[in-house]
Amino acid sequence: MSDSNFADHDALQDGENTRSTWAAIRKGWRRKCPKCGRGALLKSYLKVEDRCAVCRQELHHHKADDGPAYLTILVVGHLMAPLLHIAFVTWRPEPLVLFTIFAVGCVALSLYLLPRLKGAIVGYQWARQMGGFGTSS
């Protein structure tokens, strides 16, 4: 299914919502405003801006809460656990070496994914007009 099919599928039948869910998620993943894609979504590592500096879209409505953390744990666990098994079976490194490499890998991947997943969740909420996003333009 192409991106245009996703965009058509994501628009509500009643014609009120013309926000593309996948486009908003992609913009959020890049940590940009889900509406314009140019303004910064985050003002620090995980703090969401109150409003976009470019298009003035209010962003304080988000309710990301623990979602990004849970998704980060899910993704990192599902990626690193098989790699840990493969590395152990293939090379049989010393336990301290194995622990050190995978601890650093897990922390680095978590730090990379957490703000991007938070942006994607905020983008999804904006596109689906969840919370207060339905009342603002």
Radius of gyration equals 19 Å
Give the mean pLDDT. Answer: 89
The separation of the N and C termini measures: 28 Å
**What is the succession of H and E elements?**
HHHH
Keywords: Membrane, Transmembrane, Transmembrane helix
Transmembrane segments: 69-90, 96-114
Protein name: Zinc-finger protein
Pfam families: DUF983
Walkthrough of the structure:
The structure is a single chain. The protein has helices spanning 3-10, 21-29, 67-91, 95-127. Mean pLDDT is 89; it is low at 4-15. The two termini are 28 Å apart. The relative contact order is 0.19. α2 (21-29) packs across α4 (95-127) and α3 packs antiparallel against α4. It has 4 helices and no strands. The chain is mainly α. The chain is elongated, with a radius of gyration of 19 Å. 55% of the residues lie in helices and 0% in strands. The protein has one domain.
Describe what is shown at a glance.
With 137 residues, the chain is mainly α. It contains four helices and no strands. The chain has one domain (3-134).
Note the main attributes of this structure.
137 residues, mainly alpha, elongated
Layout: helices, strands, pairs:
Elements: H1 3-10, H2 21-29, H3 67-91, H4 95-127
Helix pairs in contact: 2-4, 3-4
